[in-house]
Each structure stands twice: as structure tokens, then as C-alpha cells.
């Protein structure tokens, strides 16, 4: 097997499995562990994989986006802390937008006992609030993306444009000082951008691993957010770089 074929296989394994390990890849592809390490270095340089201890995980691209199951297993403790801090950012809001994604779903669960109207494109967020006796849920509708269980396209956009929302809890695939707030899919970016535009106050929730990453579609500037909530895993000096662009960065 030539190196190009082997590297394509490694990317496919990473995307289907969520993570690949050096020894297992070496055995499966019948090459030396050093060969696998060189392959992972090349693929990391192409921004297809991210090196982690002992192996690699897939990076999201315009052609690949991780699903809900994978997201629910990564940085899990950190995401629960972020969601808890985010739920305390209502500050009297009565209408709330909850974005798609696993961390926003955790936020939705924590809002279930509040007196609110929640607008969402996410079936997962709507499901988390389905049995609440105090929250009115408005699901935007539109084309459902199977990978993230969220609605996109014109049906969702048309309804969202007609609203004025107090606070939006937004997630992201990447945030960087160079490219702002980004996501791989144009349809998702359009919904996110509209939610940012119709909301009076915006809170971004992002695990530390999202920082320094950029993707195909930019949907907001860092300065569009009043608050960014992340984990203490993000170094304080990195958080300060983002605070200089406008938002208050909360590390939990």
C-alpha cells in the first residue's frame, strides 16, 4: 500500500471511529509504528487530523463534520461545566435562542424549570425541554440535517428573521482571532448568523479545543458576543487575547 492510499485509509478510520491509535493502526495496516507517526504528522499538517496522545482525532472540514454521538463523548466534563455557567447568564431574559450542538442541548436541560420561550433549530434541544411545564418551545422547522439533528434552509431562516430574541446561546465548530466564529456547513452558518442578528445579547459556549480552529464558513465576529464561556483548560493568556476583541471570557 502506497503512502497516499494508507493516509486516506487512516483519515477514513478516524472519521468513522472518532479516534485512531498508533499501535492499532500499525497492526491493521501492517506497517511500523514510526510509519504511522509520520503519516499522522503529514495529515495533521494538512489539517485533516489532530494529534493527541497516542494517536489522532479527525478535524472537521468542509467535507466532514462530526456527529452528535461523537460530540457527546469529547470534553464531556468541561461541556457540563460550561452549560452550568451559561444557564446563569439569563439575566432576566424571557425569550431565548438555543443553538444546535451538544453543549447547547445541555443548556436547554438546565432551562427546563425556568419561565421562558425557547426558540431552537435543534431537535435535541427541543427534546430536552419537551416535558417542561414552564418553557414554551418554538421549533423552527425546515430541512433536518441527520448528522446534527438540526433544521436549516429557508423555512428555518424565514421564521427566525421575524423574531426579536433576548439572548442567544450559540455553539461553534471553531473560533480564532484571525477568522472569527466559523462552522463547516453554509446552511448551518446561515441559521447561526441569523440567530446572532436577531438576538439582543449573545453568549458563545465553546470547549477549549475549539479555540484556534477555523472552518469554511464564518457566521459571526468575536466582537458580536458579549460573553464567551469555556473551560479552564483554555490558558488564561489565550482567553485574554479574545477578551481584547470585546467579549467577557468566562473560564469554568
Automatic annotation (TrEMBL):
Pfam families in UniProt: DeoRC, HTH_DeoR
This protein's UniProt keywords: Repressor, Transcription, Transcription regulation
UniProt name for this protein: Lactose phosphotransferase system repressor
Record flagged with keyword Metal-binding: no
InterPro entries: Carb_Metab_HTH_regulators, DeoR-like_C, DeoR_HTH, NagB/RpiA_transferase-like, WH_DNA-bd_sf
Its biological purpose: Repressor of the lactose catabolism operon. Galactose-6-phosphate is the inducer.
Matches recorded under SUPFAM superfamilies: NagB/RpiA/CoA transferase-like (SSF100950), Winged helix' DNA-binding domain (SSF46785)
Domain of life: Bacteria
GO MF assignments: DNA-binding transcription factor activity
Domain HTH deoR-type as annotated: residue spans: 3-58
Amino acid at each position: 500500500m502506497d503512502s497516499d492510499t494508507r493516509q486516506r485509509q487512516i483519515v477514513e478510520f478516524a472519521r468513522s471511529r472518532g479516534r485512531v491509535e498508533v499501535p492499532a493502526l500499525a497492526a491493521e495496516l501492517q506497517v511500523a509504528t514510526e510509519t504511522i507517526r509520520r503519516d499522522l504528522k503529514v495529515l495533521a499538517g494538512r489539517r485533516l487530523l489532530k494529534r493527541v496522545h497516542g494517536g489522532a482525532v479527525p478535524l472537521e472540514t468542509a467535507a466532514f463534520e462530526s456527529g452528535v454521538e461523537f460530540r457527546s463523548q469529547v470534553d464531556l466534563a468541561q461541556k457540563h461545566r460550561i452549560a452550568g455557567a451559561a444557564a446563569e447568564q439569563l439575566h432576566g431574559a424571557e425569550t431565548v435562542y438555543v443553538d444546535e450542538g451538544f453543549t447547547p442541548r445541555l443548556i436547554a436541560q438546565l432551562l427546563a424549570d425556568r419561565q421562558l420561550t425557547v426558540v431552537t433549530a435543534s431537535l435535541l434541544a427541543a427534546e430536552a425541554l419537551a416535558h417542561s411545564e414552564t418553557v414554551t418551545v418554538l421549533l423552527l422547522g425546515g430541512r433536518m440535517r441527520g448528522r446534527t439533528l438540526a433544521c436549516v434552509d429557508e423555512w428555518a431562516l424565514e421564521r427566525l428573521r421575524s423574531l426579536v430574541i433576548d439572548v442567544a446561546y450559540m455553539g461553534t465548530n471553531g473560533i480564532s482571532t484571525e477568522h472569527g466564529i466559523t462552522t463547516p456547513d453554509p446552511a448551518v452558518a446561515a441559521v447561526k448568523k441569523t440567530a446572532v442578528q436577531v438576538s439582543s445579547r449573545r453568549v458563545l459556549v465553546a470547549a477549549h479545543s475549539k479555540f484556534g480552529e477555523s472552518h469554511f464558513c464564518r457566521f459571526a465576529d468575536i466582537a458580536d458576543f458579549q460573553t464567551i464561556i469555556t473551560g479552564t483548560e483554555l490558558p488564561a493568556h489565550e482567553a485574554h487575547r479574545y477578551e481584547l476583541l470585546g467579549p467577557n471570557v468566562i473560564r469554568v
